Amino acid sequence: MESPPSSFSTFRSYLRALAQTPSRFAHRAPSVSSSYEELSWVKSRSGSNMHKSLRWYDLIGLGIGGMVGAGVFVTTGRASRLYAGPAILISYAIAGLCALLSAFCYTEFAVHMPVAGGAFSYLRITFGEFAAFLTGANLIMEYVMSNAAVARGFTSYLSAAIGIPTAKWRFTAAALPKGFNEIDLLAVAVVLTVTLIICYSTRESSILNMILTTLHILFIIFVVLMGFWRGDWNNFTRPMNPNSPSGFFPYGPSGVFNGAAMVYFSYIGYDAVSTMAEEVRYPIKDIPIGVTGSVVIVTILYCLMAASMSMLLPYDMIDVEAPFAAAFSGRWEWVSKVIGVGASFGISTSLLVAMLGQARYMCVIGRSSVVPAWFARVHSKTSTPLNASAFLGIFTAAIALFTDLNILLNLISIGTLFVYYMVANAVIYRRYVVIGITKPWPILSFLCLLTLTSLLFTLSWHFAPSGSSKSFLLGLCIGLATAITLIFRHTVPQVRKPEFWGVPFMPWLPSISIFMNIFLLGSLDGLSYVRFGFFSGLAVLVYVLYSVHASFDAEAEGFLGVKNGEMIRESTESEEDPNHKV
After folding, report:
1. Are the C-beta atoms of 561 and 37 separated by less than 8 Å?
2. Which of 198-207, 255-264, 389-398 is least confident?
3. Which end of the chain offers a freer environment for a tag, N or C, measured as fewer CB atoms within 10 Å?
């Protein structure tokens, strides 16, 4: 049977396709795939397979490397000085718990469907192609922006470590506008070097990450021990200025939670580990240990760092920009150099892990035909997504070459939190809905009510005037969210039980994750939402002008078999990938 002509074969064909955009959008946007298809012939579009070479200790190393960058050396001081005081220790524990809840959601999907697409694949089998593409496109852009920022940050920390001013590493191009005129060749060199490494081999990339992460952890342990040795336990409760609020909780519970919202961004990075699922030798055993284990270890490290810093100085004396380096300045100046070296290792590992993750996201997006299938190719010799890795590496290097760090920092974080929110929704939806068998409206109604209640809590927290009325409103929101979840728990039965590993206490833990991610989204500034709106609009434009037609053609050619409205048989859901080992 002859295949229908492509929407892009001629200009006239494309115009004809554009005229059919509304009907094609209605058909393809909500279309879902099944996990069996993602594990079989959708994955086969890459040609060669990614080599299964990773174990649980590799995943723990990648998780720690992805999370523990240089940011913790900055956010700890800012959150302690401005919000939490010595209770920054509790802030990190709360943020770690929130990260662990999100990690549980990722783990359930990654164990059930060990493919390289991470959140894109999880949303594609639950909420459909358009929701997956919108979140995936935002996530890719955020990865690129944050990696460019990390690369430029590497120049700054390396300069501090070896005592050469940052200006010596950069030169100014007078013809370019301010903010884009400081040329950073070292940042470009770092990005291109990492790109070559991840193109060559995932296994060797993991080994390099393990070495650098071990060195970075040793530097962190050194800083912690120095803090406990040189510090004063009285600093946990006594500020330097007698007029400053005193005690372990100088700004009360609200300060602790505001501090948790700020330091939570130090945990971003564990989601990249889920994109490595296709290369894990024993997914059912290794992924839960790797993902959750890395979050737990990082939480312990962060809490120890927070306690060490609180002992070194009273919270009202902490330097907001460089808390650890400033605490050791003067007599212990050499320790500041050590911190600079350790931060450089942290930047290297976080860049390596993030660039591994972004390439695998793009590879699987290419498999789904919403971007050119060229991105989906896996090289037969290296067993890596070579095309996606090289393209995104060059793109990241180009941005790192020109763009100022402050501009880049204003463009990141919101996309990742939005994806965490979506994955928590997806794990609940998937447990309670089987397409063609159960009605989705009770579950969608619950998720919408929970979101609205969480949003009301967040707005009240940030904008309601302090007093008993604010406390009542916040308590009311928590009570409503609890009641909604309790009613849903006892009235809507689960129709799907995880075969290997699942989020415990369903739907409570994912519901708390939804609540906390909305709260954290509320802590971002307005520029983040402008960025998110701009890139979301750009993603919609790409989907309407290209992606929906490409996926429509792929379905007609037999590459995408699930159509909107068809029932996905449970028999296909229970079939396993031949390489899905226990």
Report:
1. yes
2. 255-264
3. N
Residue with tokens 């939480």: 299
Structure tokens at 88: 């920054």
- In the DSSP assignment, the letter for residue 182 is E
Closest by CA to 347, choosing from 165, 159, 185, 157, is 157
Structure tokens at 220: 């962190």
In whole angstroms, what is the distance from residue 259 CA to residue 278 CA?
36
Would you state the structure tokens that stand for residue 31, as one six-digit string? 């279309």
Tokens 């699942």 correspond to 502
Q: Which amino acid is at 473?
A: L
**499: phi then psi, degrees, rounded to nearest 5:** -75, -30
Place of tokens 């997806």: 426
What's the Cα-to-Cα distance from 85 to each of 78, 210, 221, 254, 348, rounded to whole Å?
10, 33, 22, 12, 30
What is the residue extent of each domain of the chain? 54-238+246-432, 436-495+507-518
343 vs 332: CA distance, rounded Å: 18
Residues contacting residue 435 through CB under 8 Å, at least 6 positions apart: 32, 566, 567, 568
- Report the alpha-carbon distance of residue 191 to residue 177 in Å, rounded: 23
pLDDT digit string, tens, across residues 561-572: 544 444 344 333
Judge whether 400 and 151 are in contact, CB under 8 Å.
yes
Residues 519, 102: Cα–Cα separation, whole Å: 14
Write down the H helix ranges in 464-507.
468-491
CATH of 54-238+246-432, one of 3.40.50.720, 2.60.40.420, 3.40.50.670, 1.20.1740.10: 1.20.1740.10
- The residue length of the chain stands at 582
pLDDT tens, 321-354? 667 766 776 657 677 777 777 777 888 888 899 8
Query: How far is residue 52 from each of residues 277, 381, 382, measured CA to CA in Å?
Result: 9, 14, 12
Q: Measured in whole angstroms, how far is the alpha carbon of residue 230 from the centre of its chain?
A: 36
* Residue 88 C-alpha from the chain's centroid: 23
